């Protein structure tokens, strides 16, 4: 049997670990052949393939990125996308497809599997940890580790210079990275997209922190938004700047804090540093086990499924479940962490 | 209300994070006073205390070790141990006790709570991850990360010199560190205490690895034991050596591999490096949440309980459950990982 | 004999290592007493002191920041600054002063020593490595290491997404951090303050890099400035933004590259992350040896001197030499490194 | 013109950085062709070559090991070794040879160049930093960094458990790694091969350290040897053990300390972990500059030379100088560091 493998969407540490596990177990235990598709669904539509055998996956476990390449091509939006996929698979005699990706990639896999009879297995991937149906996704632990290390380093400067340090981390729709790295790094304020923040409250925490010890560290998710009256998006200098996603809220907030508290504030924008480089041991373990279980789904002909983490077990859930809703930070959890603010 | 806190047993990254969370929430939300006991149960028996308030826990989150000190003193084995504990607590008006420790420490807390009416809450701690009733214990992720980084580095040398590299990691009774770091580090053989290993099989994997690519890396838990016929404990040079725990099985195995395969072999014994230093972000998150929930147990007067991780939730389990049996590596999981051997 | 110690200027990993070495050797070998002054020259002017003995310096070697605090207070610009310093030193019977700091701090020490008969010894400190008379300053190696690790991580994302990644690193007047981290991280363009850059040339390198392999990484020092015609400082959105120092040139350059090449570009601003946290082994070694030799200067009554690194030796140079001119990147060295551009 | 490149001797982080720099500059600036020889001198003698052009050196800068492979084959000891080298070079039209290696490799290059008219340029390589004529060799900073990080981690355990921790680091003939990592890690005793140590003195330091604060950390180079009366090499259990190089002196010393002071002692043997993995930023900078200057030697037809570091400059020295004598730790420097013992 020949099995196709693709990786779609943004970069994420652990993709190569999944690919390696799928191929190692598939070849050694089940005698499968593999076809790698280049750059996600684009490669499937265009029949653009990569050799994928045991030598090809040697040494890739600790490497970030993906040996298959990735893209955001969506066959549901491409002309004859589905038909071209079926033609490629038929032409190459690919009998099953393992799609490793985030919401978009898995959504396509779900539709292909449920509506078009293409036998798909999904492996969830998002650095933001915002996919339902799994406790964690790989890449998240690595990102949190990098952000935490940065926050650790900033404490010394905060101590010595009495400046507010604002750290902008990834998370456009969910605050998981901000919450975990902020807690682990001992931040004094953590702002997430799930709850609009009140700049006055932030300034009150900043001021009380200065009184209690030294300068505060504020961790803010890139998608965090102030309350209506705060008008961040109407800020002209920001608008003309263009890159709202990357340097928006952190810079804006630092300026507001300076204006309102009279304290100097500085911003660090970690950006893509969070999603590159070697995966943490946790992510390698998780990604590898996802890969081992994904190929077992293929062997069991259990298609339309996604592998997921539940506690310490890898389970199988319907592909559709994974993409039904975004997994955001529960208000109760945010409140639990709030004991460290100020 | 006054709450006592102690840490018992071996060193473990994350202990300070628990203490900080307990005190921060206890003081700020519930208005409790705290008394720290020095060096575990010894401090309680002898009334040896440490100041424990918010200034005392400032800045300790990223630090390894424990500001309270630790010891292996067991009051159940000490003369009038229980009576002296009760006297200390009464004298200091300590109304509840949070015991952070491994099997031994928690066992004492369970007995105190269940049989002697001392209101105890337990927080599980073991770098070996071998406590039942919780998915993970803090310290484990840090240890696995350190061991994985070491294995990563050894790959370059293995590649260049065609030598077998044996890495001995912690784990006297359970193979969790070996299993996780071995998998994450791409080891070619992983040996754990749960399953006696066959030196001939190890040598077969070593030989096949040399054929397939470059020199193999063998990860062995310090408690791994060869099959009977292999007579490791009867080895004279080992016996006269004395330090079986530290340099035993790794060195022995390297010599056996050299003898049987004719390939050069070298050993690295990571030792205490695995249990020191700053905790990983994962461990800081887990330890902090354990602390927050432990103090909630006190507020709820829910004694005789231990906090535990289930998926992404912190739950409460009877203290006695935690110590009922050692959590060892399931044979099915070991087999799953075995696809990468050789 | 009583010796005063102060640290002035910006945060820099290794300050504590100097303090520890000075005190350890001064107490143990020469029997000196020490007085720490809080927050640089401010503490000397105001007689604000910190206990400084062997217990006070225990455990500080690996810690960033400075246990003495720092400030940018300049006694030469303060009313009666010099007189107040002399009064404090006389009142406390401080017979010699060790000043650890950058250009400003050492300039004060030089004037005090040469013109006012205050016996000073200087220890050079600048993360930017731009002090003359010494091969390296401590803090620099740590900053370069942090920036290099960030660039390493960005390569994976550059590979997977075909985006230009601009990394803005510290260096307002000298490009040492950009040059070393850019070279070590395999950057495709490195821009330094010493040489005005030509945006068209940068875009040409970017384009040629895309042709040769994958997306380029551009490392730019915060003080790098484009050629006249490029008008960065006249850019309106930047002007209204305010924080030119922190997020200026990196963001501006990314936008220009997008505009001119049609390729997507993203910016990472490492900011204060580069100057915080534990010093590298190299910086601990250098800072410690500086401290040991500074106290030897005191013993030898060799004042008005600064310790400096020459090859592997620590030498003594006149304090005035250190501040005579900024040590900038030699055009020949920049050209040497330029072989890797594009 | 065609230039040959080889790497000889033990593994060392930075080898790939040299190779990349040589090829990048040689191809781009001088239009040379390159031939890589596999496994050091063996490849030259046997005509075993590797393709070496710009694509071949892409992405290798951060990787440990060497893409050319290495061996300890010595053509001076092989039958017709020199003649076979000359034949290979003539057959492949290789007009110059860049030999990257330690004492043995460079010695061959010196002989080939001086006595046999083979145009050679040497690049010094040794993780032990014991080559004369250069301030530092690449690989050393990486090794020191790894050992220092391990020592940092051990401090927490030393604090909590009152155990002596012995760390055995690399260095058979020179104590550079022990000296630098011991100082940077805040060790309480450092033992080097250059000075026979007195176990009684070590025990006195251990005891005094326990009195002053907490448990001591002892860093010992693998080649350190006790004074005659201490008879380490006559120890039977050690002799029968076989692996004196790896686990000898550390284990022996821990046992002696236990015996003589009554304190528990544990050993960590870092082993090959110190020489693998990604090079530090310092080593990448140094190795790259060595490569750039080595190819300049070829262009200048300045053969029989080795590139070397002097301060911040790369200079050229006669190949013979480099191997004339081992660069060991100066007694004065060891004494300087000794202020931290005990």
UniProtKB/TrEMBL annotation, chains A, B, C, D:
Its main location: cytoplasm. It holds the Pfam family PFK. The keyword tRNA-binding does not apply. It is found in: Cytoplasm. Pathway: Carbohydrate degradation; glycolysis; D-glyceraldehyde 3-phosphate and glycerone phosphate from D-glucose: step 3/4. Gene3D superfamilies: 3.40.50.450, Phosphofructokinase domain. Mg(2+) binds at residue 103. The record marks 125 as: Important for catalytic activity. Non-allosteric. Its cofactor is Mg(2+). The active site is at 128 (proton acceptor). Residues 2-297 form the Phosphofructokinase domain. Substrate binds at residues 126-128, 163, 170-172, 222, 266, 272-275. NCBIfam families: PFK_mixed, PRK03202.1. This is Pyrophosphate--fructose 6-phosphate 1-phosphotransferase. It comes from Streptomyces massasporeus. The lineage of its organism: Bacteria, Bacillati, Actinomycetota, Actinomycetes, Kitasatosporales. The gene is pfp.
């Amino acid at each position: 049997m020949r099995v196709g493998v693709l990786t779609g969407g943004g970069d994420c540490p652990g993709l190569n670990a999944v690919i390696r596990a799928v191929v190692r177990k598939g070849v050694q235990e089940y005698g499968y052949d593999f076809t790698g598709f280049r750059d996600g669904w684009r490669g499937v539509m265009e029949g653009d393939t990569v050799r994928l055998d045991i030598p090809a996956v040697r040494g890739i476990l600790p490497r970030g990125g993906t040996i298959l390449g990735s893209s955001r091509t969506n066959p549901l939006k491409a002309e004859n996308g589905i038909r071209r996929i079926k033609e490629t698979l038929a032409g190459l005699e690919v009998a099953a497809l393992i799609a490793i990706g985030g919401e978009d990639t898995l959504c396509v896999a779900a539709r292909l599997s449920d509506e078009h009879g293409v036998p798909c297995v999904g492996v969830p991937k998002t650095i933001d940890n915002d996919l339902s149906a799994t406790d964690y996704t790989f890449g998240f632990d690595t990102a949190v580790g990098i952000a935490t290390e940065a926050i650790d380093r900033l404490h010394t400067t905060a101590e010595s210079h009495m400046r507010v340090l604002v750290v902008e981390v990834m998370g456009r729709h969910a605050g998981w990275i901000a919450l975990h790295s902020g807690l682990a790094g001992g931040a004094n304020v953590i702002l997430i997209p799930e709850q609009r923040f009140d700049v006055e409250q932030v300034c009150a925490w900043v001021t009380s922190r200065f009184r209690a010890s030294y300068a505060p560290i504020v961790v803010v998710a890139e998608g965090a938004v102030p309350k209506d009256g705060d008008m961040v998006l109407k800020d002209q200098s920001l608008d003309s700047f263009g890159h709202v996603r990357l340097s928006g809220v952190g810079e804006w907030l630092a300026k507001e804090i300076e204006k309102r508290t009279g304290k100097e504030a500085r911003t660090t924008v970690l950006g893509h540093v969070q999603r590159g480089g070697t995966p943490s041991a946790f992510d390698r373990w998780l990604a590898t086990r996802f890969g081992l279980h994904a190929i077992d789904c293929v062997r069991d002909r259990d298609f339309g499924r996604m592998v997921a983490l539940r506690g310490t077990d890898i389970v199988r859930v319907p592909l559709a479940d994974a993409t039904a809703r975004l997994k955001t930070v529960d208000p109760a959890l945010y409140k639990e962490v709030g004991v460290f603010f100020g």
